[in-house]
Specification:
With about 200 residues, the chain is of the alpha/beta class. It contains 7 helices and 7 strands; from the N terminus they run ααβαβαβαβββαβα. Helix 3 runs parallel beside helix 7.
Length: about 200
């Protein structure tokens, strides 16, 4: 089922949820920490839908749907992407790590989420912050496997140091110009599509 922008904006939320029960979701999660610009949050919903991620966590001092600007910028994809608000990104990470995150498959005609067969699979999710830091590495050098949670931070100050300490990896996007950083949506798109490609390649 594919909907254009107008159809998404006018779709009934309950009706669309019923139609999405058969949608395959990929083992990728977004964690948003203190994203102040509501248009960025809306754009991240659009990206999350494009990737058919499993869930998005909106944390801290971030607005949540049905904020009018989020609704407009997301073209109502907030109705489609599973999301949850947490007071801090740390709470989101703990919730995600403690959840049963089973080994997932992107192979066609196989169930996306399978029951875990070992205790280790419950903690197979990788937490990857997209940030510039002394400990960061190019996003292309990270080995993405199983389930991946991509964490993006505030547009000005970035991801909080205490949150970075909880991450498995810190991914950096090379910048060759004068500008120090990219828009949060662009950054998330670059890394998430790269990670998706690796996950799909690993599953072949």
């Amino acid at each position: 089922m594919k909907l254009n922008a107008q159809e998404l904006r006018t779709a009934d939320e309950e009706e669309i949820k019923l139609k999405l029960t058969s949608l395959k979701r990929h083992p990728i999660y977004f964690i948003l920490e203190n994203i102040y610009d509501t248009y960025n949050i809306g754009g991240l919903f659009r990206l999350a839908d494009a990737l058919s991620i499993t869930k998005m966590y909106i944390c801290g001092q971030s607005e949540i749907p049905p904020n009018a600007k989020i609704k407009k910028a997301s073209i109502s994809t907030y109705k489609i992407v599973p999301w949850e608000y947490k007071k801090t990104a740390a709470e989101a990470i703990i919730d995600l790590k403690s959840s049963v995150v089973s080994r997932q498959s992107l192979v066609k005609d196989k169930p996306l989420i399978q029951e875990p067969t070992t205790i280790d699979q419950r903690h197979s999710v990788q937490i990857v912050a997209i940030e510039q830091d002394a400990k960061s590495v190019p996003y292309t050098e990270i080995e993405y496997h199983s389930s991946v949670a991509l964490l993006v931070g505030n547009e000005t100050s970035g991801v909080l140091p205490e949150t970075l300490a909880l991450c498995d990896h810190i991914a950096e996007i090379p910048m060759w110009g004068i500008n120090r950083s990219l828009n949060v949506i662009v950054s998330a798109a670059i890394v998430s599509y790269h990670a998706m490609g690796k996950l799909m390649s690993n599953d072949k």
